[in-house]
Amino acid sequence: MPPNILVARLSSLGDLILTAPVYRNLKAHWPDARITLLVKPQYARALEGHPAIDEIMPFEGFFSTLARVRAGGFTHYLDLHSIPRTVALGALSGIKNRVHYKKDSLSRQLFVKFRITSPALERHTLNRYLDALKQWDVPAVFDAPELSDRRPHGANSQECPDKICIIQTAFLGDAVLTVPLVKQAAALFPGAKLAVVSRLETADIFRQLPEVAEVIEDNKKGVPFYKSFSALASRLREGGYRLAIIPHRSFRSAFCAWLAGIPERLGFDSSAGRIFLTKKVPFSWLLHDAERNLSLLNAVSKTCAEPSAPDIRADSTLAGELIARLEAQTGWQNPSLIGVHPGSVWFTKRWFPERFADAIKAINAATGAKTVLVGGKSDNGLCQSIADKCPGIAINWAGKTGIPELMALTSRLKLFITNDSGPMHIATAYNVPTVAIFGPTTKELGFFPYGKGHRVLEAPLPCRPCALHGGNRCPRGHFLCMRLITADMVSTAALEIMRK
Fold first, then answer.
1. Does domain 316-499 have CATH number 3.30.565.10?
2. Is the pLDDT of residue 305 over 60?
């Protein structure tokens, strides 16, 4: 007889979303099992349509729910909440096979009240959920949420709005990681006119997409806030957009869409402007940012978005011109090129220039590859200091390439070495093998190189991550997150990738 499993999680929406991999693992281990999820009534539709859940049971009072459970013929009880109510429910249910996840609530309380740390706090809640399955010898084949897990309340049929705008006015990397959302939105609503709101410096990312009918530039720099904001709101109001998709989690973006009178406004439940959204999708750090953005579409379509990497076209003519210019400037003939981006807006995200130089020289000695150092105008001094240490094998092009040129050049590279930064996402969008150096940030924040064949180098320190974007100084004063990453580690990783 196949298992008849009841899973209880009577908590918030975010915690409920994190349980999604549990059901996939149960079905992978017991394909014929029947899985029922017990949740609060207001979240009964949060995981509706999950491929591994057979029934959603709303919690409607302790005794009425207990009666339903006792009549349900359940053989297994998995308590993913472990509060007195769910423990008592399991004890009185008559179900023999009962497992409760270890909550470590005491460790949390000690940290919140007295700042007493514990190794238990370093383990993610999802890991503790998966640990509970070990008591049934169920292996953790799936260890992260997937796009098809997410069917937010209010998902409707594909009623095609005639005009859609996607608002993404964050940085370069965020813009690149919004490309899959743009493409799938266009495929989902083929009859709609699609516009993208973007910063001036990232507008070229979207201009080269055939799916985009219009790019609206948001001049956030050099103009007083009220002028840029009111100009954007007026432009959107005049555009007559029916749906705004807002992956940018800022108050300004959501408020602007509301002020423009766009009737449907879709964004994340963690947005600073969530009070202005008509539909909100749970935000999870366990998804890559490209997939997080795609999850927004699950709120407006019964067709689940599919994971996809950013895909941007290269201007082959411009790429050829840049290579010709590079060869004329350096005397290199048909060089095998690697790109290096050593800069970052945040000081703690920058690896050491002397180590970049040592890695470049080691790679050149092994492969003969030449290096182009890229970045903005503010990176010119940094890149020149590295180029000076690598005469004849590296050239400084910082500040000499705009976004179109950077995209075209990157498409011709054999390898890209970078800090956690926007150009990293351009490289992976062209499927250029990438070695990324992560210091204050971690892969778990969702901004790692997307796709296969890339490497992230990082030091396993309990103080990481210390910030979402990095900072201007190490909060602990030791900067070990970067100091522990050596030039040999970077060159070894690069050579391994290049050999493959």
1. no
2. yes
